[in-house]
Amino acid sequence: MDIKKFPSLSVVYKTEVVCPNDTNPMGILQGGRLVQWMDIAAAVCAQIHSNKICVTASIDAVSFMNPASVGNIISIEAKICRAFTSSMEILVKAWSRNVFETEKQLISESFFTFVALDEGGKPTAVIHVNPVTSAECEQYEMSSQRKKIKDKHKTP
């Protein structure tokens, strides 16, 4: 496709509050719940960018840098890095903030890859990305390198 969209047009912000049923017995946010929230934000970002239904193809290593506890506010940002033929790489970052404090801390970040589907459920072409800022250009270039590494490790 010759059409290109700016990454800023499909940025998604998602906010959650950590409730008791989101935590482990220690009152700390379960990693799986956070990944679920991040996946939803990434899916919405991919779908807004492509104007298609999109499904998760892969999630890069997810690191949990800091814990979040009951009552913390979780802010998630999903932003497209690059679109290939039918797939898109989305960078997702999550922060935690205590409601009584102003500072937030990064708790996780990962790259999610989504594939756009046509009405028949088959992969379909997506709109390319037109990076603008230096950070977007850097992510755009690095995305290609990450894809090459993933493709090299795919099982036949």
Describe the overall structure.
With 156 residues, the protein is of the alpha+beta class. It is 25% helix and 35% strand. The strands form 2 sheets. Strands 2, 3, 4, 5, 6 and 7 form a 6-stranded antiparallel beta sheet that branches. A two-stranded parallel ribbon has the order 1-8. It is globular, with a radius of gyration of 16 Å.
Head-to-tail CA distance between termini = 28 Å
Instruction: Tell me roughly what share of residues is in helical segments.
Output: 25-40%
Number of helices: 2
- What radius of gyration results from the CA coordinates? 16 Å
Which outline best applies? globular
Low-confidence stretches: none
Quaternary state reads single chain
Residue-averaged pLDDT, rounded? Answer: 94
- Our estimate of the beta-strand percent is 35-45%
**What's the main sheet like?**
6 strands, antiparallel
Class from helix and strand fractions: alpha+beta
N to C succession of SSEs: EEHEEEEEEH
Report the strand count: 8
